[in-house]
Amino acid sequence: MNDNKLRGLIAATYTPLDLNGELDTDPIGPTTEWLIAQGISGLYTCGSTGEGMSLRSAERCSVAEAYVQSAAGRVPVIVQVGHNSVAEARQLAAHAQQIGADAVSATCPSYFKVNDVDTLVDCMAEVAAGAPKLPFYYYHIPALTGSTLDMVEFLRLGGKRIPNLRGLKYTDTKLHEFQQCLELDQGRFDVVWGCDEMMLGALATGATAAIGSTFNIAAPLYLEIIDAFRLGDFVEARRLQSLSVAMIRAIGKYPFHPAMKSVLGFSGFDLGGCRLPQGRLSQSETETLRNELSLLGYFEWAQPNSHLSAIS
């Protein structure tokens, strides 16, 4: 196993679909090149952003393979394998290891809710065992899974029963719990932040890496937040974080991920719409969103510049 922790901005990648809503992996290569050029230091595939739960398992395998091949070892690729079938998730984890992914991650089953930490550990142990040579990150996103269990207790118990448990993708707003997870067992676990509009708070709490959707479209902004924080310029860091919040609020007026795909289209990346129940934005909605983002100055401050850095 690679003992290095994740660092910097990890883009939760999108899955390209054609006009008929079928998988089209051709744009993954150019998109990966662009993300790396923007300062991204990792790729997280088939998660919520990548519509993993709306894809067939064979499609998820194809997407993971395309991103691993496109990254070509330059940045780590984490494959999200969560599924309502734990057995299917384990097979997806095994595939991720087979194709050379750098880590696997998984949400818990969500149709039948996981109501206690012991059961959550049992489920994740089964999934992680599919890829025993890879670091495993539990994907904690209670807003979507309905599982609001104590993550400190999960790490304590999981650390004893899941040999390759590396840490968490923590997509919640409880900074106090996030901090406890970071500090548990003298920093044993790699806990990666997952709420873009709260990055500054996470940095103050000790975050060294973050996985996010909007890193696809505004990585330079987040890298500037990190720089301002590291320099101790908290007034500037708050100003920049406010731009992130305003951008996310503008996008959030629409179905979020279809809107994000529209914004990627503004940069020349046509990744299609999303599968039902998400759909896609209309042309008029897309133009309105473009105008709203323009009023925020998005097309100026979201561009790469010479002052890129990474969390360290």
Automatic annotation (TrEMBL):
GO terms for molecular function: N-acetylneuraminate lyase activity. Its EC number is 4.1.3.3. GO terms for cellular component: cytoplasm. The active site is at Y139 (proton donor/acceptor), K169 (schiff-base intermediate with substrate). Pyruvate binds at T49, I211. It is found in: Cytoplasm. The keyword Cytoplasm applies. Pfam families: DHDPS. Belongs to the DapA family. This is N-acetylneuraminate lyase. The gene is nanA_1.
